[in-house]
Amino acid sequence: MALRQTSLLRLRSPLAVCVRSMGKGEPGDGAGVGGGSGGTIRDAGGAFGKREAAQEEQYFRKLDQEQLKKLKKGLHKEIEFHKEQVQAHKDAIKRHEEHLNQLK
Questions:
Q1: Which of 12, 20, 36, 58 is the most exposed place for a label (fewest CB within 10 A)?
Q2: Distance CA 47, CA 26 (A)
Q3: Residue spans of alpha helices (H) in the chain
Q4: Which of 47, 30, 24 is nearest to 39 (CA)?
């Protein structure tokens, strides 16, 4: 079967994510019907295949949320670090200006 592009997400960064799917059907519908070969349960299709596909999607959504949370936490720490550095540099500039004025 030929792959077909189903959607394209444009992000604020220069990265783009392409999502492709095989054939028709929903994940978990069985082998050859969009369910793919994800194990014997998913190959059989039916309710258990759909349940497994839903659990897999839930797992990856949770993983994405955790990664995003860690990224945000890291960026907040980095912002705080740079604010502290700015203050340290302002204090150093003030000290150097005072020392320069004493030399005049």
A1: 12
A2: 12
A3: 40-44, 46-103
A4: 30
- The verdict on pTM exceeding 0.70 is no
CB 6: neighbour CB atoms within 10 A?
9
Count of residues in the chain = 104
Task: Give the Cα separation of 35 and 52 in Å (integer).
Answer: 10
Q: Which two tokens stand for residue 3?
A: 């792959």
Each residue's pLDDT tens digit, 33-59? 555 566 676 666 778 888 888 999 999
CA–CA distance, 35 with 47 (Å, rounded to integer): 12
Distant-in-sequence, close-in-space partners of 45: CB < 8 Å, separation ≥ 6: 28, 29, 30, 31, 33, 35
| pLDDT at residue 4 in the model | 47
Look at residue 1 in the predicted model and tell me its pLDDT.
42
